[in-house]
């Protein structure tokens, strides 16, 4: 899979994408990455990419010319890229979008800066994505977030093929991930749930499912809509609802494991 960015600070991507899991996946050829400098598509001595907004107002906008020329030239070579723009006004980026993008051969991420881009450039976009309801200084972090979330879904990127399957937001369950523990089995007086030390895989699986249900009910009850729950799982959800009604907001968060012993 090939990711490309068009931005005015093309140097910011490599340090992240060459490190740790991303770096290993890149070196293994699981994904390729090319950062393009938007200023390569300017024609004046100062390599100008921005201009003042019509109608007045503060700040500068990215002008359409360099972005149009960049996207058109890059699209004319090789497989047609899926073109993504970023804006706080875009559709929210989430795990479903990451899963969909993981099926693309080539993704071109166009990163805005300043007060944003001339509205006409969105006619080049296959989609416009937002990371969330806040305003960043530029789209570069958004591009890195998208690349990171998509690459870790590509076969072999995490080393262990099974690992992205039962994670939070995965298509599989629609729930948050279950609570996890590592050694020591007791730390500062806090023991790991006994069942996890039992070696009984069926009981561990059941505990994990209930832990997922409980954590989802506690932190993201909106995700439970449409999830099929059996009777025991529904009791866990009701228990969480009851506990938070008694404790008030945020109550009992530290005690987020089902008592399956
Ligand atoms: N004036 C615009 C914000 C521009 S911020 C507005 O009020 O909507 C400059 C650039 O940062 C944007 O073009 C986009 O590429 C990026 N950006 C800012 N916030 C973002 C967000 N929440 N998600 C994704 N990209 C964002």
From TrEMBL:
According to its UniProt record, where is this protein located? Cytoplasm
Give start and end of each tRNA methyltransferase TRMD/TRM10-type domain.
Answer: 1-225
- UniProt KW keywords: Cytoplasm, Methyltransferase, S-adenosyl-L-methionine, Transferase, tRNA processing
Residues annotated for S-adenosyl-L-methionine binding in this entry: 112, 131-136
Q: Which residues cross the membrane?
A: none
Q: Which GO terms describe its molecular function?
A: tRNA (guanine(37)-N1)-methyltransferase activity
- Coarse class of the primary localization is cytoplasm
Q: Which GO terms describe its biological process?
A: methylation
For this protein, what is the EC number? 2.1.1.228
Catalytic activity, reaction form:
guanosine(37) in tRNA + S-adenosyl-L-methionine = N(1)-methylguanosine(37) in tRNA + S-adenosyl-L-homocysteine + H(+)
Q: What is the superkingdom listed in this entry's lineage? A: Bacteria
Check the record and name the Gene3D superfamilies matching this protein. Answer: 3.40.1280.10, tRNA(m1g37)methyltransferase, domain 2 (1.10.1270.20)
Q: Which residues form a coiled coil?
A: none
| InterPro entries hit by this protein | Alpha/beta_knot_MTases, tRNA_m1G_MeTrfase_C_sf, tRNA_m1G_MeTrfase_TrmD, tRNA_m1G_MTases_N, tRNA_MeTrfase_TRMD/TRM10
Q: Where is the signal peptide?
A: none
Known function: Specifically methylates guanosine-37 in various tRNAs.
Q: Which PANTHER family does the record cross-reference, listed alphabetically? A: TRNA (GUANINE-N(1)-)-METHYLTRANSFERASE
Quaternary structure, per UniProt, is:
Homodimer.
**What's this protein's family per the entry?**
Belongs to the RNA methyltransferase TrmD family.
Name the chain's protein: tRNA (guanine-N(1)-)-methyltransferase
- Species name: Thermophilibacter gallinarum
């Amino acid at each position: 899979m090939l990711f490309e960015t068009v931005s005015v600070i093309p140097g910011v991507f490599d340090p992240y994408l060459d490190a740790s899991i991303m770096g290993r996946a890149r070196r293994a050829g699981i994904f390729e990455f090319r950062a393009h400098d938007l200023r390569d598509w300017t024609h004046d001595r100062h390599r100008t990419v921005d201009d003042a907004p019509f109608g007045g107002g503060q700040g500068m906008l990215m002008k359409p010319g360099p972005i149009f020329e960049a996207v058109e030239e890059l699209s004319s070579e090789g497989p047609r890229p899926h073109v993504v723009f970023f804006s706080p006004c875009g559709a929210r980026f989430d795990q479903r979008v990451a899963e969909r993008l993981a099926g693309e051969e080539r993704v071109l991420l166009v990163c805005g800066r300043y007060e944003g881009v001339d509205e006409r450039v969105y006619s080049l976009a296959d989609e416009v994505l937002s990371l969330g309801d806040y305003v960043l200084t530029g789209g570069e972090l958004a591009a890195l977030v998208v690349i990171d979330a998509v690459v870790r879904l590509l076969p072999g990127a995490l080393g262990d093929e099974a690992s992205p399957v039962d994670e939070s937001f995965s298509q599989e369950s629609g729930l948050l991930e279950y609570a996890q523990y590592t050694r020591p089995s007791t730390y500062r007086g806090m023991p790991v749930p006994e069942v996890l030390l039992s070696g009984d895989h069926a009981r561990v699986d059941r505990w994990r499912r209930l832990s997922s249900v409980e954590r989802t009910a506690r932190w993201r009850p909106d995700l439970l809509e449409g999830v099929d729950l059996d009777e025991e799982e529904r009791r866990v959800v009701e228990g969480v609802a009851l506990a938070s009604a008694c404790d008030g907001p945020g109550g009992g968060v530290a005690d987020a494991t089902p008592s399956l012993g």
